[in-house]
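Hi F.,

I've been meaning to write this up properly since the lab meeting, where we talked about keeping a consistent format for the predictions we share between groups. The idea is simple: the sequence comes first, exactly as it goes in, then the structure tokens exactly as they come out, then a line or two of notes. No screenshots and no reformatting. I'm using this chain as the first example so we have something concrete to point to.
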Amino acid sequence: MRRAESAIEPVLATLKDNVLYLKHNLNTRAIASLRGELGHVNADVDKLIEAMQKAIDESNAFIADMRP
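Output, unedited:
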């Protein structure tokens, strides 16, 4: 049992190293691919904000018309 327990630590250390390497490598690739999408996302957010503001303005005008 002790031999098996002592064999676990080196295996886990290697596994942790591999996971860390993969995380860094995948994060770098993901960030690089997301940079190209940032402009599209910003444009979509701007359109959404404009649409929301228009809806707010229209609802405020409707409420103002209902008041005496």
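Notes:
DSSP finds one helix and no strands in the chain.
The longest helix spans residues 2-66.

If this format works for you, I'll send the rest the same way.

G.
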